[in-house]
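Quick one: structure tokens for this chain, please?
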Amino acid sequence: MQSNTVPVKTKVSILAAGLLSFIGILVETSMTVTFPTLMRTMHVSLATVQWLTTAYLLLVTIVMSSTAFVLKRFTFRRLFFFADLMSLAGTITAMVAPNFALLLAGRMLQAVATGIATPLMFQLVFTRIPFKQIGLWTGLASVIVSLAPALGPTYGGILTSLWSWRAIFIGILPVLVAATLLGAYGLHGAALGTQGQQFDFGGLALLGITFTSLVWTLNLAGTHGWISANFGMSMFVAMLLVASMTWYARRGQRHLFDYSILKNGVLRQRLLQYFGLQLINIGLSFVLPLFAQDVLHASPMSAGLMLLPGALVGAIVAPLAGKIYDRRGATMPLLTSASLAALAMLLFATLTHHFTIGVIAALYMVLRVGFNSGFGTAVSDASLQVAGPQKADQNSMFSMMQQFAGSLGTSLMSAVIAAKTLHSSTIAATVNGSQIDFWLLFGVAVAILGTGLWVAKKKKTGL
């Protein structure tokens, strides 16, 4: 009989991996409020500077796609300290970067760290936490993943206003030291073992090229317009690559994941909800600070602080939703999540021309309640749809798609606004482009709600 007591070292190990993940994700959205500053000081365009987020998330996605194998092949301790080293190297490189290229290189090193640390944190939860507490602990872990993007603009805005964008990297060094010490104490144990499985280098390369092509295609839309030949040709190539990746996943001899888990309809819906909520989350973290600064003429500090109330409310909601899930199942928190996300995005879209800092803050709180009601619950319930070694596959797949959602969301939101600037002023382009972005995110929320209702109906009727 499994004990319901969680050992201290298990708690410490989850916290250590969580802090390492928190650092990477915090910096990711902290940089968003620095974009206007970086565009001026480093003489780059919005289409270029947004790669600090898009390229970072893209590399995190690719690294995470390898973790279904890596989490079995290496001990948690070795993985943690490799990620820790990459985070330190990236932080120092970005902190002293004299130009955009070196700043981007530092972010890429940090991407490797986050790409390992986030699935490592969830794998510790799924393999070392008693079944009856999975919802609670996944909710707590999801706070780290979801709170960091919300706190990032506040953290980055304050430091950029009071000091410099470089202070963003200086400020995380004490957290990195704390994570290192906690990891040294808490992380132990043997590797899970690959059972003779060989790593799928071909699949990793194809996945990386495909995801990069999709993001690059959206970047071309922002640079040349949605009806340009550049965008059309790139989209054609991207669709061919998606088709190739689909064929490879079905017919290839080796796989990054055990794709058979996607035959489970409940797991597919949970993946859609996890992906969609993160796309909305990161997309808003990009658009709202930009809108506040370019349209409302707010300072970086004000642009960041307006998201803080929502971040704090969301942090409270996540573990509460986890407890509800442990006691009553997934249906109520997931449908509540999707309904509130759809309501929030509808209000964002219809009230765009009436925004103030206060209006944005209030709507963002509604969104964060919805987001945190379902984000952790989706991955918790998905983990119960698989058993044994497949948990690593499910964990890696969800972590990968969550990060790709951020990369895709950022590039899509940016492309819509950037394409508008080709034909109108910065303020007009930001207002009209943001409104289109909000409608797109509303469509995502409706899709989540519709599929959630369908799964709930099937469960109720026992089909």
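The two ends are 32 Å apart (CA to CA).
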